[in-house]
Design goal:
Elements: E1 27-31, H1 40-49, H2 57-70, E2 78-84, H3 87-104, E3 107-113, H4 115-128, E4 135-139, H5 143-149, H6 155-160, E5 192-203, H7 205-208, H8 211-221, E6 227-228, H9 231-245, E7 247-248, E8 251-252, H10 265-271, H11 274-278, E9 297-299, E10 302-305, H12 317-333, H13 343-346, E11 357-362, H14 366-369, E12 386-388, E13 403-411, H15 418-430, H16 434-444, H17 450-453, H18 456-461, H19 468-473, E14 480-481, H20 490-506, H21 511-532, H22 548-558, E15 576-577, H23 579-584
Parallel strand pairs: 2-3, 2-4, 13-14
Antiparallel strand pairs: 1-3, 4-13, 5-11, 5-12, 5-13, 6-15, 7-8, 9-10
Helix pairs in contact: 3-16, 10-20, 20-21
GO molecular function: transmembrane transporter activity
Protein name: Carbohydrate ABC transporter substrate-binding protein (CUT1 family)
Main location: periplasm
């Protein structure tokens, strides 16, 4: 992977999630299409490209004909859409934009730029009211921002109202697995997923099934070497491979991998649900209520605080435990250079072959982790590794979210002129349509539709993808979700994390001091939002400060969880599950509605 220097603005994880060489910070594809209705030959050409598909070729033809007809009023228009730089969006900008232009006569320019730049340009349009882009693909992490500022189109209203004539009758919104991610407290859909990837547990399946290692592990710990269910088992496994096995085939091995440099990339290491994995926040899917995985309490639709003294959990015992374990494991079990690495530098390390497991691993790395000839691949094209659901910390309770899922999502702004918005909406639907979605899923491995996940083409490909398909077909999948509605201004709050947690990583502050500072900083931002009145009905309204004990007792009285008191024992007995047994326990057939073609 290459790390790019940016001019300004927040640096975000998806800037680094492609290992392909990108020659410039911004890549755009302008397609000059003939201003005419798509003829049958053009439609047939693109149907050939969009294989496999969950639709029959006849139904693909019907859907493409619908797009051509619906686009007739907008022929010759030049429409601008933007997304971040990952493999999925490269396919859209290079192939799908060209197809759309040839089919509709709309000239489509699809820019792919760093995610931080996407957020920066989005803020510019929202603040100035000037139309920068006609359509946006931005993380659903911004859902709390979008619905509170009142500048984003509610798609559920748009599809049945102003945009009804340009809404694909075959779109099938209920087929999208992340529909809840873009749904606000008012029940309306503001963002529709275009790509998704999860943050899972990664491990060396060949080492974990080695009879000698299994016998030695059980003799020492009293339970089986397997996929860790809790953090205690993860820690035991990290200790075992680092200090008991030590070397495999003459190479020093480590039981853990992470990164710790005080750098913007350290921020999403934690905002991407690390605290929830430990047990921070409350029960609730997709996000805890009233307290979410950032530790922000929301009552009704209003954020009321993130510090424990305001009823939040950002600096509570569960959050401090999560930072403590992060630092302890990196020091004890990761390669020495991990402490000084950024996200982009640490990402390729597991593929080099000397890492036993990694709890914080993005499935967007899958395509690069299955390349032939690398150290973690077998000669027959199957991986030596697997991915599985992540273990949970000692504060975690059943019903909480358990990990993070990125969801780059379709978004329209009110400041875009109505005709341009309609033309952009046609393109945004096209790139998630059933006609193209399955092929796009095979290219980028970032699933958005239930029907794609269960398609026979992925049943056939599953053995070479290390558990990716099994996870997305599993009931566990719903516990992996993006940042949610409790976060009132994602750009302003997200940048606080790397600065404050970086102080703990560098040793300048204790975990408690770092989280106290982060909680105070988040409350300060929300206080400014409250005083400004810029977010009207659902903006922050901070609670007055009370003692921690007041909030511990209130949670107990109310039957909620956060904030939790400090546990007397933060390391219960380790628990594991056999990987092959686990995946056999999951459903072997899709939900009934996804069976139909």
């Amino acid at each position: 992977m290459r790390q790019f220097r940016r001019r300004k603005g927040p640096l975000t994880k998806n800037s680094f999630l492609t290992m392909s060489s990108v020659a410039a910070l911004a890549v755009s594809f302008t397609v000059s299409a003939p201003v005419r209705a798509a003829d049958d030959a053009t439609i047939q050409k693109w149907i050939t490209e969009f294989q496999p598909s969950t639709l029959s070729k006849d139904d693909q033809k019907k859907e493409l004909e619908w797009f051509a007809k619906a686009a007739e009023p907008f022929k010759g228009m030049e429409i601008n859409v933007v997304s971040e730089t990952i493999t999925t969006h490269e396919y859209e900008s290079q192939t799908l934009a060209k197809a759309f232009s040839e089919l509709t006569g709309i000239k489509l320019k699809h820019d792919i730029i760093q995610e931080g730049d996407v957020v920066e340009k989005l803020q510019t349009q929202m603040q100035s009211g000037k139309n920068v882009y006609d359509g946006w693909i931005n993380d659903s992490d911004l859902i709390g921002t979008h619905f509170r500022y009142g500048q984003t189109i509610a798609l559920s209203d748009y599809m049945t109202g102003e945009g009804k004539d340009v809404t694909d009758p075959m779109l099938d919104v209920n087929d999208f697995i992340g529909k809840s991610f873009g749904t606000a407290p008012d029940g309306k859909l503001y963002q529709l997923p275009d790509q998704q990837f999860a943050n899972l547990y990664w491990f060396r399946y060949d080492w974990f099934t080695n009879p000698d290692y299994k016998a030695k592990f059980k003799a020492k710990y009293g339970y089986e070497l397997g996929v860790p269910v809790n953090w205690s088992a993860y820690e035991d496994i990290a200790e075992f491979f680092t200090n008991d096995i030590k070397e495999i085939n003459g190479v020093k091995v480590y039981g853990h991998m992470d990164y710790g440099k005080k750098d913007p990339s350290l921020g999403w290491r934690f905002t991407d649900a690390w605290l929830s994995m430990a047990g921070n926040g409350d029960k609730g899917i997709p996000n805890g209520l009233p307290v979410d995985e950032w530790g922000i309490r929301m009552e009704g639709c209003r954020p009321v605080g993130s510090s424990v003294e305001r009823g939040g959990d950002t600096n509570g015992p569960a959050a401090v435990y999560s930072i403590t374990k992060y630092l302890e494991w990196m020091k004890k079990y990761a390669p020495p250079q991990a402490q000084g690495m950024t996200f982009s530098e640490s990402g390729p390390v597991p593929a080099q072959g000397n890492i036993a497991q990694q709890m914080f691993w993005y499935t967007a790395f899958t395509a690069d982790m299955v390349k032939p000839g690398i150290a973690v691949m077998n000669a027959d094209g199957t991986p030596k590794w697997r991915m599985a659901p992540s273990p949970h910390g000692s504060y975690w309770k059943e019903g909480m979210k358990l990990g993070y899922q990125d969801a780059g999502s379709l978004t329209l702004l009110k400041s875009t002129p109505a005709d341009r918005r309609k033309a952009a909406w046609l393109y945004l639907q096209f790139i998630v349509s059933k006609t193209v979605s399955l092929k796009k899923s095979h290219v980028g491995l970032t699933f958005i539709r239930e029907s794609d996940i269960w398609d026979k083409s992925f049943t056939e490909r599953a053995p070479k993808l290390g558990g990716l398909i099994e996870f997305y077909r599993s009931p566990a999948r719903v516990q992996w979700t993006p940042t949610g509605n409790n976060v009132p201004d994602y750009p302003k709050l997200a940048q606080l994390w790397w600065q404050n947690i970086g102080d703990a990583s560098s040793g300048a502050k204790t975990p408690q001091q770092a989280m106290d500072a982060l909680a105070a900083a988040q409350d300060s931002v929300m206080e400014r939002l409250e005083k400004s009145g810029v977010q009207k009905e659902c903006g922050p309204k901070l609670h007055k400060k009370e003692s921690a004990e007041y909030w511990f007792a209130k949670a107990q009285k109310d039957g909620t969880i956060a904030p939790q008191r400090k546990l007397a024992n933060e390391k219960p007995k380790g628990e594991t599950v056999d990987y092959d047994t686990l995946i056999k326990s999951w459903p072997a057939t899709p939900p009934k509605r996804a069976e139909a073609k």
